[in-house]
Amino acid sequence: MWRESSGENRGWVGLGDNVDHKMKFRSKKGQLPFIELNGEEIADSTIILRELSSKFGKDLDAALTSEQRSVSHAMISMIENHLVWAVACWRTKNMDQVLKGYKVNLQHALGTRIPAGILNFFFKFTFGRKGAKKVKAQGMGVHTPEEVSQFGCADLKVLSDMLADKPFFFGDEPTTLDVVAFAHLAQILYIDKETPYNLRDYMQENCPNLVGHCSRMKERCFPDWDEICSTLDINTHLPKPEKQEEGKEGKEEAKESKESKEEKEGDKEKADKEEKEMEKDKEVDENKEKEKDGK
């Protein structure tokens, strides 16, 4: 989830702010990721890229010919509507490997202190079950694991052949296809090396140019990649407010602040009590004056 900082008094930093949704919030379409741009919600990666390109005048495909744009569209469609389902199918059948391979901390992701064992069981049962239904409905889920792996490897081979020995798919500069490809290839390549995964092994052994492509995209777009992965903060380049160390002086200040607050509260209670007594005395005096006037 991402928000663009164009409104006043929203407390967002820089151009935009990444929001930790704790796996609770989705777009109105039910999709992730989604962004909020000038108060308008935009979901689906393709639409997001298009809207941001239009908003900020940054067309990654400006130098492409009409034919290259068509090829780019076809390749992106293959990635987002075929390769992604081969990956999703493997995940639904290997939930334990997903948690270990991507080092998922469900307590952090969900913002809860429920024991990890219970969360892992819930995750595998709920997300695995939902994911299995989706891949089956799409069609990929009806195939055997071996067949699904062959589909995924074939897609990787197509991308590898297209990239050839070029730095990026259409030359020396990245385009939308490079961005989309990296977003999905990184999920295959950068899973923990101890986790058995056919698509990663195939890429490393048969598509070294795709491995190099991921490295180039990572270095260009995410120079703070290691820090992002360790802190889970995608805004590491933005300044953070300094954290005050709570040492002896901090504790003493907190103690003094507490005592001061208690003293103020005591003084207020005392003042209220005296005010009530004064009002009571005033009422008594007024009654006496009325009795005197009546006589």
UniProtKB/TrEMBL annotation:
Gene3D superfamilies, per database record: 1.20.1050.10
Q: Which InterPro entries match?
A: FAX/IsoI-like (IPR026928), Glutathione-S-Trfase_C_sf (IPR036282), Glutathione_S-Trfase (IPR040079), Metaxin_GST (IPR033468), Mito_Protein_Transport_Metaxin (IPR050931), Thioredoxin-like_fold (IPR012336)
CDD domains linked to this entry: GST_C_Metaxin
Positions the record marks as coiled coil are none
Please give the GO cellular component terms listed in this UniProt entry. cytoplasm
Q: What region holds the Metaxin glutathione S-transferase domain?
A: 154-217
Region: Disordered, residue numbers: 238-295
Renumbered to this chain, the Basic and acidic residues biased-composition regions fall at 239-295
Output the Pfam families linked to this UniProt entry: GST_C_6 (PF17171), GST_N_4 (PF17172)
List residues of the Thioredoxin-like fold domain. 22-92
Q: Which family does it belong to?
A: Belongs to the FAX family.
Which PANTHER family does this entry report, sorted A to Z?
FAILED AXON CONNECTIONS-RELATED, METAXIN RELATED
| The protein's name in its UniProt record | Failed axon connections protein
Q: Which organism is it from?
A: Vespula pensylvanica (Western yellow jacket)
